[in-house]
Structure formats: structure tokens, C-alpha cells
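Notes to self after the call with IL:
- keep both proteins in one doc
- input above output, always
- annotate only the second one for now

Protein 1:
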Amino acid sequence: MHENLTDLHLLRELEPVVEKLLNRHLRMRKDWNPHDYIPWSDGKNFYALGGQDWDPEQSKLSEVAQTAMVQNLLTEDNLPSYHREIAMNMSMDGAWGQWVNRWTAEENRHGIALRDYLVVTRAVDPVELEELRVEQMTRGFSPGQNQQGDLFAESLFDSVIYVTFQELATRVSHRNTGKACSEPVADQLLQRISADENLHMIFYRDVSEAGLDIAPDQAMHSLHRILRNFKMPGYTVPEFRRKAVVIAVGGVYDPRIHLDDVVMPVLKKWRIFEREDFTGEAARMRDDLGVLVEELEAACEKFETAKQKRLEREAKMAEKKAGKVLASSAS
């Protein structure tokens, strides 16, 4: 059985890796300006300045695109909570602290740009958006929360492993939301944001991989805990379940995407099912991750069946509604 290392020991052991990965990130990243991706000429004053307040007819986005854009924005809005969480677990000293601050600065652009786009284009109700922002930030966030709402002991491994999956999931969600918008400016903006998220994911993924080499059993305990209880950071958003269904049925983020584009690529990169350095309970946890993958596969099939039935119901309702409109116009 491998000896458990303290977070302080792990921080020191991993600091050279973090410095190397931070320097790589700074070479690879491309700075961009949120204002360059906002169609300012589409904007006009609201009622308080003599203009017109928002009306649902002004939105050019579908229900799926609106729901996904707002969900993505509210997720980004909780940045102060995320900063606090990673700062507490990753330290603000040396290369760790430089990364935490750089990551926070880059992430902050996302919320700025998304909100400006939605308000300027009148894609969603700005009053409701502000109310949701305040509610979401008041609720806060902790990645160390399981499905029963209980807190488990958070650690450095919990943080870097959770954020690896979360950043990849966010990248995929932003990219698919851009496509769902069917609007070139939104698509460009969300491509730019998803490129940021991808570089962030690569940093955390590679720090986690180095941690797996240093303390494999300890890292496996965190990996198993994170994946068995995984929730996206937007789960605290009001009416999250309903919105998640809309987003899933719309093909932005569903169980198949979660398994094939988020969970499996990371597990394969870390060679989780090929490594032979897990012992005792950690080895049993690795085997249980194989069971989890099978459970996720079953959930994908169940979701597809439910989605098909839902789409058929919606098609019949739309057909019925269209028939009534034709009948009323003919009479």
C-alpha cells in the first residue's frame, strides 16, 4: 500500500511540473478581447434611458440555444467561488499562485463576453438574467459535494482531478452551444471561449497525470470519488434539472457526450485501465470505474430511448397545433 502524502508535500512535489506547464500555457494561449466579439451596432437603450425594455419576440435564438447560453453564463458567473476553492487547495504561493491568478483572469473574460452578447442582442430577458446571477452567486459552489449534498474531505487531488473533467465538459458545452445558436457571431465567440477552456483542461489534466505518478493510490481515491459523484458546476442554477433536459435533448450536452467526449478521453490519456501501480482499495476502485463506465453506457441507451419518445410527442403536438391553426384560418 502506498503512503498517503499531505497536500503540502504534494504541492512541493508538483511545483516544478506546475511551473513547466504554466510556461507552456503562456506560450500557447492567445489573448483576445471580449468587445471584439459583440455586435454593438445591434444594441439599443432600455426603458430607463428612454428606450424599449426586452420583449420575447426580440430574441433570435431557439429555446435550446437560449437555455444553453444562460446556463453557460451562470456557470461562468460563479468564478469567485471557483477561485476561492482552487486557491484554498492549490496555494497562492510560487508557480501555483501564478497559475491560479492567470486562470482566474482568463476565465473572467468568458462571463463578460457572454453577458454582453446576450444583452446587446436581446437574446434573453436581462432582468431575469440579473436575478439568476445574484441567486447563483449567493448559492456558491463546492466540487466536494456528493449527490446527497454531503461534503467530503477536499484535497489537492480532488481539485485538480475535478477541474480536469469540468473544464473539458465546459469546453464541449460551449462549443456545442455555439453550433446550436445558428448565428455566426455567437459561434465565433463560443469557439474562442472553448479554446480557452481546452488549454485550461490540458493544464489540469497534465498536473493530475503527474500526481498519479507520484501517489497513484491516493490519486485513485480522488478520481473514484469525483467520477462517482460528478456534477457540473452549474448544478446550483435554479431549475437546473429542467434546463439540463432541454440542453440534453437539444444535443448540447447529454449522457453520450459526457461519456464519449469527457470521461473516456481523460481516462484513456491517464491509462487508468492499463496501469499496474494501484494497490489494495485503490485497485478495487479502479475496477469499479470499469463498472461505472458500463453504467454510464446503459444510461446513454436509456436516455436515447427517452429522447426519441419525447421528440415524437413534441412532433405530434406541433402537428396538432398546426392543424388547429389551418382550421381556424380556413373558417
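Protein 2 (the one to annotate):
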Amino acid sequence: MSRNIVRSVRRLSELQRYKPPKWAASLKDIPQHFVRLAQRNTPIHPWDLSQLPKGFSLFIKRDDLTGNTLSGNKVRKLDFLLADALYKNCDTIFTCGGLQSNHCRATAVASRQLGLSCFLFLRSPKQTTDIGCTGNLLLCKIVGSKMIVIPQLPYKHGLKQMMEKMAKEELNQKGSSVYQIEVGGSSYTGMFGYLTAFQELIEQNVLENFDDIVVTAGTGGTAAGIAIGNYLTGSKLKCHAVSVADNTAYAYSKINEDLQAGGLDVQAEEIIDIIDGYQGRGYGLSTQHELESILEISRTTGVMMDPVYNIKAVRGMLTEMKCNPTRFRGQRILYIHTGGVFDLYDGRIDTLLASSSSAAENAQQVASWGDIDDPMPFFDY
């Protein structure tokens, strides 16, 4: 048996039959398979934020714990997207994102685990091939992904066509069969990752214990799955997504595309509240206040916020609770943490940590060898 056949058989062995929740069985074009990449049943626990307005109670669902190097919301989508790639006997994955894309990192790692080659098209504001190896880029490089730095082209009108052209070149030159994943993994197939996650929420008694769900929204795929799941079950929860992208209308249009693909006669504006105005300096850019909030939340709750998505969503959520409380159905709020911790390793928060006040605090916490009377280690087993 040839090596390629052995690889193909092993890949197909990863596929598991997908049975949707009963409440989703009427949807069109339901995926047939999934691969088990995400660590599911992520915990929900109280989240005591110091800035939480009086009267509200806040809990957090830890989807930053869906894995180690596969952590975050993207891996739930990849459960279905990479299963589709394997079922179609593809051996190469193309996807795209920013230089520090969590989606690209998760795709790179998961593809390698499944024996697939991976090409990452990384959008950069500067023309350079020296992208370094900090944050998510380190993991992408370690697993051997091929990275192509490109201009900041829009996905639907520029980048998608570029990727399709290169996919044909890969086929002609190497005989590779390419599976192309949309930016953020936000396709109709990927949406089933969070449609399935909604069943997980049901089993965790979220429908009884909460009034509102809040999540961050970039490309809109996670928000789509949560909102559609909430709608199909007839839940009385109100869903909110805090936009971190520059174009809030994009999130609504993405959810409407998924609704249409699923054969549902409802508009996104009717089933989810997209909260705008908290992008700060723009997508992927941080303000000093945002970085300070990351530090404050980490030090008081032990939960790490990423600088691109969750810190902006949490700040927006807290501001709306304070200034516009009637936006929420009730006061029992569940926030879904979508991960992104590796973004903290890109260096942007280093200056804040090294500032005079932080340095002084750290100096009190770190003892040198000269401060210890007996420097010889003693192990008491």
C-alpha cells in the first residue's frame, strides 16, 4: 500500500458521523461529518469584574479552554470545516487572516495534526517578509505552515480570488487538492460549530439561569451559530455581539447569509443585537485603556483577555450595562470567552508591564539569589 493511500485511510478514520440536535434537524445542507478537535463542555463560572454595574450578575463560559494550542472559538468551526476537507479527500488547506490571526493559528495546528498541508495568507499593512515569530506566528511556524504575506485586501473581492488562483496552481504543479476556508472560518459549514455549542449551553442549564448571552463579533461566524441556535430552540434569551470590526453591517450580512443557506425565513436583525462603537483604534489595534483593562482583569480574576477581540467586547458590554441597561433583557448575563490568549505574546502589552508602577510591584514579588540565605534547593518529597 502506497504512503499516500495510508495517509488517506488514516485521515478518513478521523471522521465521525454528525447528528444535529433535534431542534436543528430541519436546516438545509447539514454537514455529514465532524472531527473531534475541540475540548467541549467548557466550564461556566461566576466572573466578578470590579467594573460590573450594580444589579447585574455576570458569568463566563470559558471557550478559551477548548484546547491548548487549539484554544478559542475557531477550533469548534474547524471540527466541521476540516471534516469536510477530509471527506472531499483534500490534502491541502488554504485560509487567511491578519498577521496574528487566531483562526490561522488554529487551522495551522489542526491541519498538521490531521496530516494536511496548510497555506496561510496573512494580511499586513506593510510590505515585508520579515514577520517575526511572536504570538500566533510562532505556533504557525513551528508546525511548518507556509505563510504568504499579502496586502490588506477585502476577502470577497480580492483575497478570495487570489487564493483560488493559487489553489489552481498547486493542483497543476503538485497535484494537490486544496480546500479553501473563509476568513475566520465563518462559512455556513463552520457555523455548525457554534450551533452545536448551543446544545452544550442547553445542557448546562443556560436557558434557565440567564437572560442574555454576550459574545464578540469579528467575521460573525460565532455570533451566527449562537443566534441561530437560540432562535431555533425558541429560547427567550437575548443574544448580543459586540463588534470589533470596522464594518458592523458585515456581521449582520454574514448571519443573514447563514440564515438563507439554512432555509430560515428570519432576518439577523430580529434574532441578535450587534453592539457597535467599541472598536477603539480599529481592528487589531489597541488603546492604552484597553491594555490597562487586560492587566486589571487578569490580576483581579485570573482570566486572560486577548487584545483583539475579548477586551473590546467586555469593555463594550460593561459600558452598555452602565449607560444603556434596558438594552439587555434582564440582569443575569453570560459572557462567552472566545480565546485568543496567544495575541498577548505579540509584545504590545510589554511596555505597560515594564512601566514604573508595574516594575515596582514586580520587584517586590521577585526575589534574587542574593536575598535567599540558603541558595541550595531543597526538595521535600
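Annotation: Residues 230 and 237 are 7 Å apart (CA to CA). The mean pLDDT is 91.
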